[in-house]
Amino acid sequence: MPGAANIPLQFINLWVTLLIIWLIANNTLEFNTVIVGVVVSAAIALAFSRFSRVYSVIRWSPKVIIYYLIYLAVFSIELVKANLNVMALVFSPRINIKPGIIKIKTELKSPIGRLALANTITLTPGTLVVDMNNDYLYVHCINIHSADQAQLTEEISGRFEKLLRVIYG
């Protein structure tokens, strides 16, 4: 099986991811809750780490953690801006939009990096990734205000992709 040598790394990354989700979902750091989360997350990670090759590309280093925190801040800011933009369109007395699909080329090579970029774009109001094909994402936009492909690519994915390249490669 390809990637079998990375099973310990896949296990650790999957376990940490599941544990973080558990802690966020439970919203507490009580001893019993944390212990149950550690055990349940480890059991699930043990059962599924062999099939989770995508987790073998996650690297943990101070630089990656810092860039991840910056990514979360940038995403939060862009989320607020996009929500305000869509809200302005919704409450406008005259809706003047030009919806369409944009083809965006990504430089990200790892599947989890591409998945993170696609999810980030989709979670931002006004945009939706409708297809992924090799190095390209097809993004439906509620309002295309420019014909310049490079400008649209930079506006939609540029700031996220730069950070995700450091995080996922």
SSE order and pairing:
Elements (H helix, E strand, L loop, with lengths): L6 H20 L4 H18 L13 H30 L8 E6 L5 H13 L3 E7 L2 E6 L7 H20 L1
Antiparallel strand pairs: 1-3, 2-3
Please characterize this protein's 3D structure.
The chain is mainly alpha-helical. Strand 2 and strand 3 form a beta hairpin. Strands 1-3-2 form a three-stranded antiparallel β-sheet, with helices on one face. 60% of the residues lie in helices and 11% in strands. Helix 4 (111-123) packs across helix 5. It folds into two domains: 4-57, no CATH class; 62-168, no CATH class. It is built from five helices and three strands.
Features:
globular; three-stranded antiparallel sheet; 169 residues; 5 helices; mainly alpha
Concise structural overview:
Helix content is 60%, strand content 11%. It is mainly alpha-helical and 169 residues long.
Helix-strand sequence = HHHEHEEH
- The poorly predicted ranges are none
C-alpha-based Rg, rounded: 19 Å
Class computed from helices, strands and strand pairing? mainly alpha
Mean pLDDT: 84
Largest sheet: 3 strands, antiparallel
Number of strands: 3
Q: Any idea how many domains?
A: 2
Query: If strands are numbered along the chain, what order do they take across the biggest sheet?
Result: 1-3-2
Helix content: 55-70%
**Percent of residues in beta strands?**
5-15%
Alpha-carbon distance between the two ends: 23 Å
* Helix segment tally: 5
Overall 3D form? globular
